[in-house]
Amino acid sequence: MEILLNVSGIRKDFPVLEKKIHGKQLVYFDNAATTQKPIQVLEAVEQFYRTIYANVGRSVHELGLRATEAYEESRKIVSAFIGAMPDELVFTKQTTEAINLAAYSLLASGMISRGDLILTTRMEHHSNLLPWVRVAKLAGARLRIVNVDEEGRLDMGDFDKALAMRPRVVAVTHVSNVTGVVNPVKEICREAHSHGAVCLVDGAQSAPHMPIDVKEIDADFFAFSGHKMLGPMGIGGLYIRRELAEKLEPPFPGGGAISLVECQEDNCNAEWLHAPHKFEAGTPNVAGAVGLARAVEYLKTLGMGEVEEHEKMLTKRLLEVLEDLEVKIYGPLEVKDRLGVVSFNVEGLTPHEVASMLDLEGIAIRSGHHCALPLVKRLGAPMGTARASLYLYNTEEEIEYFARVLEKIKKIAKS
């Protein structure tokens, strides 16, 4: 079998993978929730705090200038990673804030108004559903939810019907955080534009695991989180197409976002800075940006194509062992249709019981609704699912161990 990544070498960069859990070697299969951090990222963040910690864009002293330089250099590195220009990347806390920023910017700019249609899908994480529910309510707009089939794939026929209603906004996930299904976002954005809509892609589960080029996708917005791609928590990004960004009003005004403020007795007027700075009011997470930049440099060195192929190889084996164990698998069984997120259930046990029993053997997975209640209910799993999610430091040996432990758990469930 072709070796795509030097996984044994990679694992040496992740100190936590040496940790024992309940006396057993840690097997970390909860990467869709958050990934572990390599020492290179930990050191980059520490170095910032130790040597150039200061606020950015506000001071002419040496530390302030060096911190600003590090922050803007991080923007260049991260934006290039997704195929964007630096002025098209807004740093946010995570995908949730990024999507809210997009939604409320459209609202503040009058680009969503009474009677307009917002189109999203039943497979969305709540973070790409609830902001649109709220904005639709505030604007007096309508919401249309596109259906999925029994395997969790987007119903493209229903999508076409919804597009015929000429939505103002189309918001769709790139990769499902429940089933790993990969949506044809390039086609979706093209069709959205042909019907006069702007298109937002939730890239939380795609940016960490596959090559991304926002220009090729032709998205108007692309949102992602740093903590799911080896970076720190509390940092993420929102790509905004340059032409659109200049038209948008920032929904969260404040210091650092303006070029001029003038006040009379009964009113104040502000002139905004150009994007991305007009969307980044207040003190940003500079250390997070530095850490995220180091994370994407690490990923770029490995090669995102190699990362994706490694995960597909592992996903194929994971699906095989789950099929052999005859547990309920949610989502398509063909690896070509999905990435390394696999939800399953064991008959006779709740998802939380399965996760707790695996934890006793050192295996970390997620259990529950995965912040995607409409989808898990559509899949026939009202109590949620157990979910194993893979990343670049996982191995086939870990999957074989996982299979042996799950087989024991199945026997306990039957006894």
From TrEMBL:
Domain Aminotransferase class V: 27-402
A Pfam family that the UniProt record links to this protein: Aminotran_5
Record-linked CDD domains: SufS_like
Keyword Transport attributed: no
Record field: catalytic activity: (sulfur carrier)-H + L-cysteine = (sulfur carrier)-SH + L-alanine
Protein family per UniProt: Belongs to the class-V pyridoxal-phosphate-dependent aminotransferase family. Csd subfamily.
Name this protein carries in UniProt: cysteine desulfurase
Species name: Thermofilum adornatum
